Amino acid sequence: MYSFEIETPTTVADAVTALGQEEAQALGGGQTLIPSLKARLAAPAVLVSLAKIAEIKGVSTEGGTVTIGGGTNHATVAAEAGAYPALVWLASNIGDPAVRNRGTIGGSLANNDPAACYPAAALASGATIKTNTREIAADDYFQGMFETALEEGEIVTSVSFPIPEKAAYMKFEQPASRFALVGVFVAKYPDGVRVAVTGASEEGVFRWTEAEEALSGNFSPEALEGLSVPADGMINDLHGSNAYRAHLVAVMTKRAVKAAS
Predict the structure, then answer these.
(1) Is the CB of residue 132 less than 8 Å from the CB of residue 12?
(2) Strands 24-27 and 46-49
(3) Radius of gyration over every alpha carbon of the chain, rounded to an integer in angstroms
(4) pTM for the complete prediction?
(5) Which PROSITE patterns match (predicted)?
(6) Nearest Cα residue to 163 out of 93, 61, 261
(7) Per the CB 3.0–4.6 Å rule, which of 26, 63, 139, 200 could disulfide with 245?
(8) What letter does residue 116 receive in the DSSP assignment?
């Protein structure tokens, strides 16, 4: 680990100012950044911790929408987002208790790991990611593996999830990390069904539109019979081949629909 300075602002405004320094890096829950620092894969001159900013923490429900502060940890989401049960289940099954009590939803979405769970929830829910400067629709936010629409110094302050009629998240876990080898979030709304897949693609989280069209007409596992995603473009590594991941996408989507039903 290289040497660095650390600052702990207590307001978003102060955090934005601190991030304006040369080689400054925001620190959310640290579940990705700290291991990267230890492995010397990152070398910021200044870490700006968001842990003491109360205004970006908490869960609220109003008008059919669950809003979660960007600094809210996974354990709090699991305990307080009861109006959206599928989101509660997802948060409850991230990592282990240590990870759930440190990692934050804003940090997860800002990092956009291709195997993370929250990106699938945000994309399938048609969530709105709010920052210190603007609001970004989930369909516009995710731009590839570890890539998002966030600009330098921009902080995820909250995420708003419209509550669906039915929803479920199913993931096939990599047993050591509990990241998703493949995870599928299915959400049924009055105007149609959204299906988001994480862990599978070299491009990161994506919507499976063919499945969405089939499920919008018949929300049942049987509607997915004969549907599959191409293996080309799926991740191929020691944990699973691209063909295996493509197969898992269909399997986990069926399981998610069954669970939601």
Answers:
(1) yes
(2) parallel
(3) 18
(4) 0.96
(5) FAD_PCMH
(6) 61
(7) 200
(8) -
Output DSSP code: residue 163.
P
Q: Which residues have CB under 8 Å from 127's CB, separation 6+? A: 121, 138, 159, 160, 161, 162
Please give the structure tokens belonging to residue 175: 């047993």
CATH code (residue 185): 3.30.390.50
**E-only strand ranges, 95-237:** 128-131, 135-137, 142-144, 147-148, 156-162, 166-173, 180-189, 192-198, 206-207
Whether residue 195 is predicted with pLDDT greater than 80 in this model: the reply is yes
The order of strands in the sheet holding 46-49 is 5-7, 46-49, 24-27
pLDDT computed for residue 170 by the predictor:
98
How does pLDDT run across 210-224, given as a tens digit for each residue?
Answer: 999 999 999 999 999
Q: What tokens does 176 get?
A: 């050591």
Pair (61, 146) in one structural domain: yes
